[in-house]
Write a structure and sequence with these properties.
The protein is α/β, with parallel strands linked by helices. The chain is built from 12 helices and 18 strands. Helices cover 28% and strands 24% of the residues. The structure holds pyridoxal-5'-phosphate (PLP). Residues 44, 47, 65, 88, 175, 210-212, 242-246, 337 line the site of pyridoxal-5'-phosphate (PLP).
Length: 380
């Protein structure tokens, strides 16, 4: 990404940019994994469901994984019959089943009660599985840990062992990782599944190992390739993975402009034309975003704050080579996943204008206006 060209060509602020060349590179890397291991790759649409991304991803993946009717319908619009469409969600609704079930290829029911309720409604041609909760925790923050106590995600592995259901279903789904940078936890989790279910796994057609891995930050993919090969050889399983963040995160940029600068209790505060409402995880998880202009040892520091009324609407303190001025453009990096999809118009501030970037060219894809705000909130 050429940041000087960006600041010249991107004339709307705030702006969200998707680098489609980088997106293709991420997809190519996963394609290599797919070829080396024989696994099937699904893009987990929840990370960023922009149709441009779905269209670019389609030729590189075996399908999409979704969490709801709307995601499924959008993914189906792009995919047609050219790939698999998988769903798992605790929020399956009986009133949507009629529209949802015909477009799914695979479903992993989240609980035994959900499984029974929907089985009774009839399941057309979808391959039926269960999300299993392996109860193998390795995350320190329980907000991200599907294996936490009293979890709502997946059938407890001990409860599943008590049943005979494996002979009636076609697959198992696990998703227990969060931004993992090695495969140790996955290998241990699959070991636990093999220990529990042994040869009964061979009664199944597929296993979905979920998302949650930052493949680019993992130097050695061989342990995963070996694991997939084992599952294929020992149990003749089709193996799916469904990454989201690994596909889109480092392809996304948020461009913002400084609206005001003042001193507050001895520190410089720069008010930006964006806010944590354009990347709610900054506030929810107190995440610190990468900023292109930040130079760790530079002498001018400023607290970057959002333009909303919330006192804690703050991105943090960053260092700059030159003092910031009103009108300066700044660029947050690695914000492709779980940012725009969670963005809102709190305080009436517009959503970022969306651009794509390829070959030194920025193309405006979508801009929101007052009419969109009105449409959302007007009850007339
Ligand atoms: C069931 C499931 N699959 C896949 C993903 C994608 O995870 P990530 O974007 O971290 O790769 C998630 C994320 O929450 C998920 O809940």
């Amino acid at each position: 990404m050429d940041f000087r060209v960006l600041k010249d060509q991107v004339d709307c602020s705030p702006a969200f940019i998707i680098n489609t060349g980088a997106l293709e590179n991420n997809l190519l890397q996963l394609n290599a994994l797919r070829q080396q291991s024989g696994c099937k790759v699904l893009y987990s649409v929840k990370a960023l469901p922009l149709t441009k991304i779905l269209q670019i991803a389609k030729p590189f993946v075996d399908g999409f994984s979704v969490s709801s009717l709307f995601e499924a319908q959008l993914a189906h619009k792009i995919l047609g019959t050219d790939g698999s469409l998988h769903i798992t969600t605790p929020g399956l609704r009986t009133d949507e089943w009629h529209d949802l079930s015909p477009i799914l290829s695979h479903i992993s029911f989240n609980s035994l009660t959900q499984y029974q309720r929907f089985l009774a409604l009839g399941i057309p041609s979808t391959s039926v599985g269960l999300r299993v909760n392996p109860k193998h925790s390795f995350l320190s923050d329980e907000r991200f840990d599907p294996c936490r106590s009293h979890s709502k995600l997946g059938v407890n592995i001990d409860d599943l062992l008590e049943t005979n259901i494996l002979k009636d279903i076609k697959g198992l789904h696990i998703h227990t990782a969060f931004s993992a940078t090695d495969f140790t936890s996955l290998i241990n989790t699959v070991d636990k599944l093999r220990h529990y279910f042994g040869h009964r796994l061979a009664q199944l057609d597929w296993i979905n190992l979920g998302g949650g891995y930052l493949f680019k930050d993992i130097k050695n993919h061989q342990p995963l390739i070996d694991l997939i090969n084992q599952l294929k050889q020992d149990h003749t399983l089709n193996v799916f993975i469904e990454p989201g963040k690994a596909i889109v995160d480092d392809t996304g940029y948020l461009v913002t402009t400084v609206l005001d600068i003042f001193i507050s209790d001895g520190k410089t505060v720069a008010i930006l034309d964006t806010s944590v409402n354009h990347h709610p995880e900054v506030f929810e998880y107190q995440r610190r975003l990468d900023l292109h202009e930040h130079q760790p040892h530079a002498k001018h520091s400023a607290i970057l704050a959002g333009s909303s009324c919330l006192a804690g609407d703050i991105f943090g303190e960053y260092q700059f080579a030159e003092p910031l001025k009103v009108g300066d453009k700044l660029v947050f990096k690695n914000v492709g996943a779980y940012s725009l999809i969670k963005a809102n118009r709190f305080n009436g501030y517009n959503l970022p204008t969306i651009y794509s970037y390829q070959n030194q060219q920025f193309h405006k894809e979508k801009q929101y206006h007052f009419a969109d705000y009105c449409q959302q909130w007007s009850t007339d």
